[in-house]
User: Fold these one by one.
Assistant:
Number 1:
Amino acid sequence: MLAAVCNVWLVTPMKFLITAGPTREPIDPVRYLSNRSSGKMGYALARAALDAGHEVVLVSGPVCLAAPEGAAIVRVTTSDEMFDAVHARVGEAEVCVLCAAVADFRPAVVEPRKIKKGDAESRRIELVPTRDILLSLRDLPPPKNGRKPVVVGFAAETDDVMENAHRKLRAKGCALLVVNDVSRADIGFETDENELTLLFASGEIRPLAFSKKDTLAAELIKIICTIS
Ligand code: CTP
């Protein structure tokens, strides 16, 4: 929450739960399915929230980034672990920002031993859907003494960007969807810059111009606090 007193912005500290990075879904003891998420945007959001005086629990998939100082960090590997970590902590959260690139599918069977190339001429891996963490927050009952958290989702799209994003916002029922065009090489995965479009549940659309992820993160945290 933000309040202006004598032109000075006072911040009411809030409890943020942020997810970041990719998940890894094991195939066998040496292989996994994953994606190109570096975790930079989620970590930038965690730092920006801390800098603004908020409390942060950061649920992080495997990334090569230093933990933001002051965040309570929960390290996970698989989508199931991320799901459980979020649900174990969502009761305390006032704002949930789900920035992680969670794998949508995982192997139905995890082979206990390394798959050897000589075992077969070709191999099919059956994939089953993972649990959708963002969607699962939509139908959470309100806590006994408090409000449901404000939920912010991210959308990584390569085509029909805004059409897909509108559909995702409606389906996932979040207050705000932050849209990323990941088909562009200069923004999104693994880069230090991004360009975002914000889709609010109210119908408002607001672009955030090309900028450093740190700058965008600070702007986003301010905006999120106005809808909290
Ligand atoms: N998400 C999640 N759990 C999943 C998959 C996605 O919480 N199992 C969240 C992401 O953290 C993000 C949002 O859902 O906030 C949208 O993720 P995205 O990958 O863009 O979309 P999907 O839901 O995976 O849908 P699609 O594959 O059709 O684009």
Number 2:
Amino acid sequence: MKIGVISETLQGERRVALVPAAAAKLATSGFEVVVEAGAGEQASFADNAYREAGVAVEVDRRALLGTADVVLSVQPPHLEDVAWLRVGAATISFLQPATQGAVVEALAARGITTFSLELLPRISRAQSMDALSSQASLGGYKAVLMAANRLGKFFPMLTTAAGSIPPARVLVLGAGVAGLQAIATARRLGAVVEAYDVRSAVKEEVKSLGASFLELELETQEGEGGYAREQSAEFLTKQRELLTQRVAVADVVIATAAIPGRRAPLLVTAPMVQGMRRGSVIVDLAAESGGNCEVTQSGRVVEVGGVWVDGTTNVPSTMALHASQLYARNVTNLLQHLASEGELKLDFEDEITRSCCVTHAGQVVNERARQLMRAAAAP
Ligand code: NAD
């Protein structure tokens, strides 16, 4: 079975789907691996590193697309690339069906079998393949460094000959994978950290990282499968009151709250931003899905009344080396699960295969992907 790794074409995407070490592992498991020339360059993996790992480097992208049995990438295949894929081949990527409806339809029409990493089930058996988690973790870590870099203050408490410095106060909104990593990072830098999440189940994890957990004394707001759900009006009013107070005293807000397949919840309003001290920093990791902060501009850093609001998108890509290494492990584990005997054998009784396979045998076979595509197409 021939595995093809293509260069990413999306502007600002520095990651590569397979790093040399993972490619070598696949090669020793009997797979033939071919990497497009320059694919690992932006993640600090030169073509020679792949060659040394026993992997072929192909200059001709179309030849690679046309001969690979499985094409790996981080971003979804480009519409123009779909036409070059071999009929019956497979692809694995973050397919993003909600925004890539045309690509999904084209992949189905061409008879490609497509796997979408963000649709993997959040079950323990799939943890080693969970690229959403590995990348969110990088994002949470880097968001704190971005905030620390912009903040004109120390994070730790210091006692110096020139006087004492109090620790920075960091508020983390959303204590999922990214949020927990942000809490751990801010704590390591010495900040005093508070965290808020609608799922009270995360309270103990937050506390074990040395942060305090902000709680609303209302009914529990947990949805299905360990994810959040949308909240009641009463809840939202109380939430706003609580956050108005806590945002006002924060030096840094790291916003990571998300609801799968929906616009990110709006947690930090424009008046809350006005209530922050000048020089404070908000890093909104939810920028791409609408933002947790009302004044966030996706892909930009803006200054609003002296407060910096960072809406940088694709933060994991800024740590391309480790992001690629972890992504490569996730994708390799999924590949080995799907092709345990050296060729793709799809068992739709298996929850992992069923959940993340989006197109197969000329059809969009995934109900969740269809829902996301319909929701995105609705006016
Ligand atoms: P996510 O990115 O969808 O959301 C991030 C966080 O935002 C979540 O904790 C969510 O509760 C929170 N949130 C949503 N709306 C909010 C609001 N209005 N106010 C405050 N917070 C809000 O989630 P994620 O980080 O990808 O994962 C969520 C959870 O799924 C994890 O914490 C974990 O429990 C579970 N998980 C399980 C596995 C596994 O078992 N394989 C893997 C990964 C995650």
